[in-house]
Design goal:
Blueprint: E1 2-3, E2 10-18, E3 21-28, E4 36-45, H1 48-56, E5 58-59, E6 62-63, E7 73-81, E8 93-96, E9 99-100, H2 106-109, E10 120-121, E11 134-138, E12 142-144, H3 151-155, H4 157-169, E13 177-181, H5 185-196, E14 201-205, H6 209-217, E15 222-224, E16 238-243, H7 248-255, E17 258-266, H8 278-283, E18 287-290, H9 298-306, E19 316-321, H10 325-330, E20 339-343
Parallel strand pairs: 13-14, 13-16, 14-15, 16-17, 17-18, 19-20
Antiparallel strand pairs: 1-7, 2-3, 4-7, 4-11, 4-20, 5-6, 7-8, 8-12, 9-10
One zinc ion binds near residues 101, 102, 105, 116 and 118.
């Protein structure tokens, strides 16, 4: 491994021992293997999935049954490179794509590496994430960022990648109309991405009035309170619907809100099985699909932020150090909170 600075032997890591039990441990700094880089972590976004692992100890079949480092939305600086990686990269500011596909299976070879059955994804049991001083990643998944992109925005290129993957699936193009259910971080970033891809009508629904108000500042051209008026009754006739709520009710009304041959993209998790309006889907030839993370989205994400088309910096509502990861994970209790960032170093 080649590095420019004298690296410490150990680092601090926030470790989830079990449900609602975190501790800070001293651990060995990892070593960049062949084709990898070692990154000193700068900023890490707190994601809803981190909060689920902390509160419930599992997400579906992924169970925290051994100590786990959370955090998968991150940026940092390359401080060392493994063999096969050009040492000129030491010192680069990078955004990390937090996944290690096998690169050789059928899905990887077809370019759908997000569907690799041997995927190792940060902060998904048993793979450790980034609430720690240093991480390693395959060199091509450490994406260089320009100076105008802050470390916080660079960390949030991960949820922006989810939005880009969804907008691509929804085939949003100039003049498209879209309904987005949910104005959490994913819904807000998806609204901005829809605007960047040229959508002219961006309708966002959320149960909470403060969240609807915020959506209007981030690209929504109209907001809907789904309790006051079911979107399905409003004749929205949109090209596409993206569910970023995980609510079965929102999915049902969203499917009924698209025009014939419209596209429905299910992003929200939490309801593994739902009843779908099948005759409606058949009669209108609606395409219903899901997305699982992302493929090749970072270059687009970096462009959208560097060009000012998507604003991630202003989404940050809380900042925490490694000794306050618990507070960071609980910050979503406040209605004003949107994105918390942890600074491990
Ligand atoms: N598929 C993927 O790869 C992927 C990746 C990241 C996140 N996700 C999922 O996307 C979803 C959104 O993420 P987030 O971090 O923004 O979550 P979040 O919980 O912060 O936001 C969800 C929002 O939906 C709203 N909501 C609930 N019921 C609703 C309804 N009936 N109609 C309209 N809005 C409703 C809530 O008020 C909330 O504001 C989550 O379910 C998350 O797990 C999926
Ligand atoms: Zn996430
Ligand atoms: Zn693979």
């Amino acid at each position: 491994m080649v590095g420019s600075t004298s690296l410490p032997k150990t680092m601090r890591a926030s470790v989830l021992l079990r449900q609602k039990s975190l501790t800070v441990e001293e651990r060995a700094v990892p070593v960049a293997g062949v084709g990898e880089v070692l990154v000193k972590v700068a900023a890490v976004g707190v994601c809803g999935s981190d909060v689920h692992y902390y509160r419930e100890g599992h997400i579906g079949d992924f169970i925290v049954d051994s100590p786990l480092v959370l955090g998968h939305e991150l940026s940092g600086i390359i401080v060392a490179v493994g063999s096969d990686v050009d040492a000129v990269r030491v010192g680069e500011r990078v955004a990390i794509e937090p996944q290690r596909p096998c690169r050789t299976c059928r899905e990887c070879r077809a370019g759908r590496y997000n569907l690799c059955p041997d995927m190792k994804f940060y902060a998904t049991p048993p793979i450790d994430g980034a609430f720690c001083g240093y991480v390693t990643i395959q060199a091509e998944f450490a994406h260089p960022i320009p100076d105008c992109v802050s470390f916080e925005a660079a960390a949030l290129l991960e949820p922006l990648s989810v939005a880009i993957a969804s907008i691509r699936k929804a085939q949003i193009a100039p003049g498209s109309s879209i309904l987005i259910a949910g104005a959490g971080p994913i819904g807000i970033i998806t609204a901005q991405t829809a605007r960047a891809f040229g959508a002219s009508e961006i309708i966002v629904s959320d149960l909470i009035s403060a969240k609807r108000d915020r959506a209007l500042q981030y690209g929504a051209t109209r907001v809907i309170d789904p309790v006051a008026s079911d979107p399905a009754t409003l004749n929205l006739d949109v090209n596409a619907f993206i569910d970023a709520s995980g609510s079965a009710r929102a999915v049902d009304s969203g499917i009924r809100s698209v025009r014939p041959a419209g596209i429905v993209v299910l992003v929200g998790l939490g309801n593994p099985e739902m009843v779908l309006p099948v005759s409606h889907i058949q009669n209108l030839e609606i395409t219903v699909t899901g997305i699982f993370r992302y493929v090749d989205t970072w270059p687009t994400a970096i462009h959208l932020v560097a060009s000012g088309q998507v604003d991630l910096d202003s989404l940050v509502t809380g900042r925490f150090d490694l000794d306050h990861v618990q507070e960071a994970l609980e910050s979503d209790q406040s209605e004003d909170s949107l994105k918390s960032i942890v600074y491990p170093n």
